[in-house]
Amino acid sequence: MEFGINFFPTVGPDDKSAAEYFGQSLRLVELAEELGFDHVKTVEHYFFKYGGYSPDPVTFLAAAAARTHRIKLVTGAVIPAFSHPVKLAGKLAMLDNISRGRLQVGFGRAFLPDEFDAFGIDMDESRPRFEEGLRACQKLWSERDVVWKGRFYEFGPVTLLPRPFQQPHPKILVAAAKTASSCEQAGRDGHGLMMVPSISKREVVQEMLGLYRKAYADAGHEPGGDEIHMSYNCYLSEDADEARAKGKRYSERTNAVMRDAVAAWGERRSEGYAGYENIVKNIARADFDRSLAENKVLVGSPEEVTERLRTIREWYGDVTISLQVISGNPTFEESVRTMRLFAEQVIPQLRGDGAAGAS
């Protein structure tokens, strides 16, 4: 298993200024490098406290690249539907060079109606726009004199500059929420996978992983390239009771800001997002204690979290774990404590099991 930090902000100006948020987060990036974590990651969202302080992952990760020299930089994820592929591919190629090949590019479809409305994009077009944008970026990175004639974009012949540092291009990861076919397609294409296990039953996640791994193997891709990232809210304290109390408070805050962001689903329907009309009800029914019992959050003492991860590894295999240590707006000091306890007391135990920990 590998471990990293996922910067998913859930704050707005009445909580802390953007300058304060970025300053603290970049200090945590430096700490992640110091403590031996494998990656740092951030999201793309707009307008709401739910992710809104991160409208451009590339900008944040460029700043992270300047403060580190080893740790991988992961977009989790960029949204092709909201950017022209020539612009997106160029920005990401710049970041790959600035970081000297430490970039992994996660692509996602997005799911918030207000974001699509602001960009003037029909939600029913999200999947074909995602697929076209990803493939256009991949072609721009790996070929010269590219001519593209797609459903949404037409350009060329063009040769992208700069060329990516990694050849033929950075590792690609695909975000998948509930759609099994997305997992299968990612496997067939030889991409990695990004998932959020907290939104699905364990058996559903296992089924999706099985489909992904089978499609990857059946397509004949190189063994070991089927990289899987899973994000978990994380809060650690040496006092288990404190960890549960604080972890519950911050998880409930995260749910509250997510509820505001998804409110439009109460009146919206889309063929491309089957069942998302229930998302508001599902958040209202969220139960922290049940999530904790089902290992959908990594909250507790270092010993408890170690056991949760051992169970997760039994369920899903040696996946890459992304820890959301700032979601819910804990104090900076609490985020530091969580990272230190995890690096110093959890990872060594998992290494002792024979699992691969942080670099």
TrEMBL record:
Keyword check for Protease: no
Domain of life, source organism: Bacteria
List the keywords (alphabetical): Monooxygenase, Oxidoreductase
Gene3D superfamilies from the xrefs?
A: Luciferase-like domain
Q: Is the Oxidoreductase keyword given for this protein?
A: yes
Protein name per Swiss-Prot or TrEMBL: LLM class flavin-dependent oxidoreductase
Q: Where is the Luciferase-like domain?
A: 1-316
The major lineage groups are:
Bacteria, Bacillati, Actinomycetota, Actinomycetes, Kitasatosporales
